[in-house]
């Protein structure tokens, strides 16, 4: 099992800079609202906004989970001997015909 990250733009630096800019703009935009209100709920709302932004920026990393699985599969070897003109040429070891050499290999 492994986790792969393929950030947008194929650059971690791009995602880090984008994250810093977006978080900075968000904090700057909500400063006035945080100062003008009171109570704990303003921090809860601000915290939820920041959490949503962080989740979106994590999605920009495009994470994926890869599960490796090994399966045993039957294997087979296909041995093809045809009756074309090239198979009757005597160019194998000891000037044997390809057909004869192929049949010996298949029998063994």
Mean pLDDT: 84
State the low-pLDDT regions, or none. Answer: none
Count of extended strands: 2
Structural class: mainly alpha
Q: Rg from C-alpha positions? A: 34 Å
- Strand content bin: 5-15%
Side by side, the strands of the main sheet go 1-2
Structure description:
With 108 residues, this protein is mainly alpha-helical. The chain contains three helices and two strands, in the order βααβα. The protein has helices spanning 12-36, 41-59, 98-107, and strands spanning 2-5, 63-66. Strands 1-2 form a two-stranded antiparallel ribbon. The longest helix has 25 residues, at 12-36. The two termini are 43 Å apart.
List the helices and strands and how they pair.
Blueprint: E1 2-5, H1 12-36, H2 41-59, E2 63-66, H3 98-107
Antiparallel strand pairs: 1-2
What keyword list fits this structure?
3 helices; 108 residues; mainly alpha; 2 strands
Structure in a nutshell:
The protein is mainly alpha-helical and 108 residues long. It has helices at 12-36, 41-59, 98-107; strands spanning 2-5, 63-66. The chain has a two-stranded antiparallel sheet.
């Amino acid at each position: 099992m492994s986790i792969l990250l393929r950030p947008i733009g194929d650059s971690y630096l791009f995602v880090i800079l984008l994250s810093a800019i977006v978080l900075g703009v968000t904090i700057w935009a909500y400063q006035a609202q945080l100062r003008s209100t009171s109570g704990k709920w303003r921090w809860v709302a601000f915290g939820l906004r920041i959490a949503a932004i962080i989740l979106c920026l994590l999605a920009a990393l495009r994470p994926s989970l890869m599960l490796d699985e090994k399966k045993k599969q039957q294997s087979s070897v296909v041995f093809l001997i045809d009756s074309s003109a090239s198979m009757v040429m005597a160019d194998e070891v000891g000037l044997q015909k390809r057909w004869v050499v192929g049949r010996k290999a298949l029998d063994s």
